[in-house]
């Protein structure tokens, strides 16, 4: 599976969000990662469907929508209508996870499940037939610019083993504190999709930041 780099606009300049998305596309991004926070599941509030629909005409890159919200079921239709291509919900908040994932598919989007650092990999086992992506959080969600938690690497490897034995094509995404130093180890452990906010949008040269991350990741794969 080819490597996907998904810059998170949480670290972008919000006064010129459209341009920043375009910069990311021109700089070689594969997806745009959208961090939605509700002030309940996580101690921060970011943005919702209106911002996503405003950005939709700017790019044709897939919108990778990470819902860090308490009650995702209520908002699935709104995020899909706003232009989300992939909708990821947190396992910790979904009382009827299987139903939620089916609803995402019914809406015509791809479905992902995210797990926090303190949530075991086994939380995704019962829904492996129902997902397109597993998001392994490498920080506690809520803020950009946090430090990568090294134990994540073991969890990625465990998730990779589960995906292989399921025989399904499921992406493994890692999110939080990703940079050129840990991108390689993450990919080597089994990740194929890297989310990065600070290490892309807070760099002067966005294209160089994306290229640097890609080569760091790919270098370690072939090493
Ligand atoms: C954390 C978010 C991440 C975050 C990534 O709650 O889910 O997507 O914005 O930002 P960095 O790369 O700065 O950790
Ligand atoms: Zn995220």
What order do the helices and strands come in, and which of them pair?
Elements (H helix, E strand, L loop, with lengths): L3 E4 L9 H10 L5 E6 L11 H7 L7 E6 L7 H7 L3 E5 L6 H10 L3 E6 L17 E5 L14 H15 L4 E5 L4 H10 L3 E4 L1 H4 L4 H17 L1
The structure holds D-xylitol-5-phosphate and zinc ion.
Give an overview of the whole structure.
By secondary structure, the protein is α/β, with parallel strands linked by helices. Helices cover 36% and strands 18% of the residues. The protein is built from eight helices and eight strands. Strands 1-8-7-6-5-4-3-2 form an eight-stranded parallel sheet. Strand 7, helix 6 (180-189) and strand 8 form a beta-alpha-beta unit. The chain is globular, with a radius of gyration of 16 Å. The two termini are 17 Å apart. D-xylitol-5-phosphate binds next to strand 2, strand 8 and helix 7.
Record the strand order, biggest sheet: 1-8-7-6-5-4-3-2
Kindly state the number of beta strands.
8
Q: Main sheet?
A: 8 strands, parallel
Q: Number of helix segments?
A: 8
Return the average pLDDT rounded to an integer: 97
Percent of residues in helices comes to 25-40%
The SSE string, one letter per element, is EHEHEHEHEEHEHEHH
As a percent range, the share of strand residues is 15-25%
Features:
223 residues, 8 strands, eight-stranded parallel β-sheet, globular, 8 helices, binds zinc ion, 36% helix, alpha/beta, binds D-xylitol-5-phosphate
Quick rundown:
The protein is α/β, with parallel strands linked by helices and 223 residues long.
């Amino acid at each position: 599976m080819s490597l996907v780099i998904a810059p998170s606009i949480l670290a972008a300049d919000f006064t010129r969000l459209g341009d920043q998305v375009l910069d990311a596309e021109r700089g070689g991004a594969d997806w745009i990662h959208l961090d939605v926070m509700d002030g309940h599941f996580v101690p921060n509030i970011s943005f919702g469907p209106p911002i996503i629909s405003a950005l939709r005409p700017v790019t044709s890159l897939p919108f990778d929508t990470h819902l860090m919200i308490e009650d995702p079921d209520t908002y699935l239709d709104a995020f899909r209508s706003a232009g989300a291509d992939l909708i990821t919900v947190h396992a910790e908040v979904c009382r009827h996870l299987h139903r939620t994932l089916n609803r995402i598919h019914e809406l015509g989007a791809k479905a992902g499940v995210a797990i926090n650092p303190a949530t075991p990999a086994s939380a995704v086992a019962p829904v492996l037939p129902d997902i397109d992506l597993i998001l392994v959080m490498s920080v506690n969600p809520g803020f950009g610019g946090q430090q990568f938690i090294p134990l994540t690497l073991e969890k990625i490897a465990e998730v990779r083993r589960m995906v292989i034995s399921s025989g399904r094509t499921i992406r493994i995404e890692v999110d939080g504190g990703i940079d050129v130093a840990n991108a390689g180890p993450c990919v080597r452990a089994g990740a194929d999709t890297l989310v990065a906010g600070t290490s892309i949008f807070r760099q002067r040269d966005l294209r160089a930041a994306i290229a640097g991350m890609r080569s760091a990741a790919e270098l370690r794969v072939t090493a």
